[in-house]
Amino acid sequence: MKRFIALTTAAILALGSTGVTVFASPFADINTVPWSGAAKFIDEAANLGLMKGYVENGKKYCKPRNSVTYCEAVQLVYSIMKTYYKADVSSSTVDKWKHIITAYKIPAWAYEATAYALDKGIIVTNDLAKFMNGNSQKNANREDVGTMFGKALGKIYHVNTNASLPYKDSGSINKASVPYLDLLRTKGIMVGDENNKFNPKVNINRAEMAVLSVKSYNTLVGNTQKPQQPQQPQQPQQPQKPASGTANGTVNSATILSDGQLFISLITKSSNSMNLFVPTNVHPVYQNKPVSLSDVKMGDTITVSFEGNQVNSLNIDTSKNGISSSKSFDEIKRLTSSKITVKNGSSETAYYLADSVTTTVDGSSSSVKKLEDLIDSDRIYKVTLKLDNKDYVTAIEAVEIKNTPKTGTLTYLSSSSITIKVSSKSYDYKLSDGDIKITGNSNMSFSKLKREYENNNFNVTLTLDRNNKVTEIKVNAIDDAENGILTYINSHRMELKANGKTYNYYLNRDVEVIIDGKDSDLSKLRENFDEISYRVSLKLDRDNYVSRITATKDRESVSAGTLYYMGSSYLKIRDSRKEEYRYDVLSNVDDIDVTINGYNSSYEKLRDKYQDNTYEVELSFKNGEVSRIKAVNVDNSKGDLRGVDERNRTITIRVDGRNKTFDFVSDVDVIIDGKSSSISNLSYDYEKGYDFVVSLTLDSRDNVVKVRAEETRSGSSSGKTVSGRIDGMFDSGIRVDGEKYSYGNSDPTVTIDGRDKTLKQLREYFDDRDEFKVTMKLNSKDEVTEIKATTL
């Protein structure tokens, strides 16, 4: 009795025949088959349950000339093979491949079939790119479908790896497909047309698919007599799980998955196909040096040790295109489809992108376009670039610089994420895949912390890895009635704040005081609590008087850095790694002690200035809130002299590619080459063509009180020449190799490829995505006076 195969409704194919009426066909359009011999296969496919038709207006149609999609083809392969092996694909196999399948937007009804085909090497992940066009299924060609069926049958029958095909168009068939199409030809399952052409790139229709499916089914399942060697199939057997061991071969595909793992399809020296996963904690080795997972590319020769489908070690024996060099940078400044500009300190560098760029964001696979959108939404990323031998970028590994605090009250903890609360806001973090280290309390474990956090108020500090995932949780203290921030203390009473509540206590006359692990006394706490924020833990006697105070300076993540934002209730600073930190300020900002460049000032005055200049700040805290700010203007205090206006009392210097003008006080102190001088002498020398590097000393109002000038070149200045590639044009200037140059009051002359043009025309061509290399002349003020552009 023949076996019927039930297919998922969405995958069912409807097929039919060509101009000859066939007896008792269930299809109304059986006479429309492309050739008469197809009709019997369509009817047999229907009888076997391989294919079913479409019911329209009470009639059944097979639509034999319609194309078949890749999803439908792989579904038929799976249905036939599971009948042969008498086993469905396991749910664990589907789960293993699900994140890849969903990434390629394969429809849910084809999950099982696709997972089966991937797991058995019938297809590889690169093949999935052919399956879909957005959310629409793509039609399959004869070569690809034949190769699927050939690989499936090749699990049972002998495959001749040295085979050749007799078709007239065999030269247009991929060499890798030849052995499998030869197997189908020798079995009489799939052959060429009447002109001896295989037509490999032509879409397969439903009539052809009916023939291919029925013949494959009958070859595997329907024959009662075993075929003769060499075509004799092996005895039906359950698929074997991959053994543990080592393997050597060529990478056929390599994909970074959404969870950061690397998936590789490996063709071994014996022509077997292996699909393997490389976890994020496995570091490939190339020439005895560790490299990243993204360095493993298609065409590389590798050696792996594995257990099941998991790789334990990977060595790149031969890299097809070589391994790129790596460079790390503090921040991505700009990103386009062709160029990335990065920054270390105050220095910016631009790199052009290679044709193919592997991109990861926070350890997950991404794209240049997605990263560009994230940067445009004001997110900040530190980055590692991989460069080829021409310094073109082949890989971008970006990690967001989080603007969230790492210390706060633990409010949620699971096996995959943690939430802390700071003031009234909550911040979520993902946990790393490995074990989470618990420190600060020797009696605390991860499982215990997970059980107890809901009934306690744990204050914790988090440590993050390079992908912003938590690797360590330090338990600082428990916030409750006896553990919190010291807000007031005198000789006989104190108060502390915990979880928004204030608790008052009287002190025992002989109260013991410990500060930062050392014996101390009450007077030190009383003298310093206004300026230093202390976290305290109390021990009470039987009368609820405080008998011991254990105090530690409240640990802020950062108390010094570059001022980044000032609001009415909080400010943000950045540290040297461009990490951002937010701090609440005193509710009455007038109570905040502020100095600018050593002069007394106010919070609101600093708030008015911080966006125009760069300020390095040191913060002090009271009760966990900023109570003192020491700010120093470091952005524009040194640069090349660009002008002195005695009448208006201004001096202009150039810093980081832009001019900045400052007012100077009437009695400004001027030193030229180490000797006391005057602003008039400095102005006179500059107008005569002498160049100076100047250092400015500013008061709290950013007025210049002292100028120290060092001569760099004597004689009249004729300007200088700059060459590079245009990467931005604006109304006021032009950006070349990441450096912006101003037109100032000049109207630059412009030539393009030797022909006179206007600045407007150059900008129009640039906006139309033309690329130019330019040579520009600058005047003594570094303003552009001439542009010679050459089209690239």
Which descriptors would you attach to this protein?
single chain, 792 residues, alpha+beta, 7-stranded mixed β-sheet, 13 helices, 50 strands, disordered N terminus
Order the strands across the largest sheet as they lie in space.
7-6-5-10-11-8-9
N- and C-termini, Cα separation = 71 Å
Kindly estimate the percentage of residues that lie in beta strands according to DSSP. Answer: 35-45%
Number of strands: 50
Q: What structural category characterises the helix and strand content?
A: alpha+beta
Oligomer: single chain
The largest pleated sheet is described as: 7 strands, mixed
- What is the CA-atom radius of gyration, in angstroms? 37 Å
Mean residue pLDDT: 81
Number of helices: 13
* Backbone shape: flat
Q: Low-confidence stretches at least 5 residues in length (pLDDT < 50)?
A: 1-23, 223-242, 714-718
Residue share in helix: 10-25%
Q: How would you portray this structure in words?
A:
With 792 residues, this protein is an alpha+beta fold. 17% of the residues lie in helices and 41% in strands. The protein contains 13 helices and 50 strands. The protein has a seven-stranded mixed sheet with strand order 7-6-5-10-11-8-9, with no helix packed on it. Strands 12, 13, 14, 15, 16, 17 and 18 form a seven-stranded mixed sheet that branches. A seven-stranded mixed sheet has the order 33-32-31-36-37-34-35. A hairpin with a 3-residue loop joins strand 25 (483-489) and strand 26. The two termini are 71 Å apart. The model is unreliable at 1-23, 223-242 and 714-718 (pLDDT under 50).
